[in-house]
Each structure stands twice: as structure tokens, then as C-alpha cells.
Amino acid sequence: MDFFVDSLSSAILLIGSLDPELFEIIGVSLKVSSTSTLIASLVGIPAGFLITFREFRGKALLITVLNTLLALPTVVVGLFVYAFISRRGIFGYLDLLYTQEAMIIGQVILIIPIVTTFTISAVSRIDERYRETALTLGANALMTAWVVIREARFGLVASVIMAFGRVIAEVGISMMLGGNAKGFTRNMTTAMALEYDKGEFVLSVALGIVLLTVSFGMNIIFHYFQGKTRV
What global pTM score does this model have? Predict the structure, then answer.
């Protein structure tokens, strides 16, 4: 018990001292996760709209596949991307392995199904009369989509927050594709794993506190917006 208390108090002091190494690691996590979430949102939200409002063969199967991919293990994504960007892979010549770009690619693949599925759910709840009224008044496809976005905005924001919460806490993709290089690809989860292996718990506990705080904040915001969609 004393060991835990000592580690916790030292971790809090480390955070309070604004330790450069600690905040460098936090910065990498926030940069990579934010970029991944932005790219996935730019792809997943339009895809969710198209899937919802377009009728095509295999639509039900596609939605089922997207729902299945919500539980996609991070190590599977890491292994899949690794096979393509390693030196022996198709895209090996791009020299992406063990870079932040590789981490972003893996994380985007991981969360596109989340953003797309939650977008479908949010948009499907909107009364069809909003869309029909906009079309009747002469709105084009873009203007009609904007009307739907305004009505589904809380659900769309919730999907983005959920996606960010998923990637900020993942470790498999970051470790396999980033390589945990200090000052470059080492993020909060991979640093915690490394410090644990070394038997150095202070930095690991400090990062754990920050990660839990971020995840807790994301979940509070997510549930807030999720509640808004039910009003």
C-alpha cells in the first residue's frame, strides 16, 4: 500500500512540475489521435450519410460488417497495416513504418467504422419530414444534407468523441506501427507499457492519471451529446 501511495504522490508531483518528457509524450498522443479522428470523421460522416440515404444491393450486409468492426482488435489492425508498409510490403518503399504517419493510418482504419456507424445511427433518427420539406422547398443535395446535419449534430459530435476516446487509449497499433521511439512515436499507452517493463512506475502512473482524465472527460462529453440526441 505504501508503494502505491508513494508512486501516486510522486506522479502527481511529476505532473505538477510540468516535466518536459511527460508532456512530450502527451503531445504525441494528442497530435496523433486528433489527426486520426479528424481524418476518420472526414471519411466516416459522409459515408454514413450515403449509406443511410442511398439504396443499393448489400446495404444491410455492409451495415452488419461495420457493426462487427466496432470490436476490431487493435493488434489485428496493426498486423494488417504492418504487412503493407513493412520493407517487404507493397508500400514498403514509402518508409512509413515506425512513424507517426503509420500510427495515424492504423488508427484511422480502427475508428472509421465507429464514426460511420454512429453517423448512420444519428442520421436515421432524424424525422424524414425534415429532408422531404427541404427538397420540396427547392433545396439541392448539399443544402438538404446541411439541414440533416443541423438536426443530427449532437449525434455526429458524439460519434467523433467516441472515436477519439477509442484511439487515445489504444496500445496495439501504436506499439506495432510506431515502435515506441522516444521523442517521436512514444505516446501515453506505449510509454506506460515501457515504464512498467522497466519497473519504473512514477512516469507510468503519471501518464495513467492523464490518460484516465482525458478518457473520463471524453466520456462525460460523449454521454452529454448522446443525451441530447434523445431529447
Answer: 0.89
The domain spanning residue 127 has which CATH number? 1.10.3720.10
Could you read off the pLDDT of 38-65 as tens digits, one per residue?
Answer: 999 999 999 998 998 888 899 999 999 9
What residue numbers bound the domain in which 97 lies?
Answer: 2-229
- CA 107 vs CA 56, 102, 133, 186, 204: distances in Å: 28, 9, 38, 15, 22
**94-130 per-position pLDDT tens digit:** 999 999 999 999 999 999 999 999 999 988 887 666 6
Distances, alpha carbon 194 to alpha carbons 82, 124, 171, in Å:
21, 44, 11
The total number of structural domains in the chain stands at: 1
| Three-state SS sequence of 70-118 | CCCCHHHHHHHHHHHHCCCCCCHHHCCCCCHHHHHHHHHHHHHHHHHHH
Torsion of CA 5, 9, 11, 12, to 10 degrees: 140
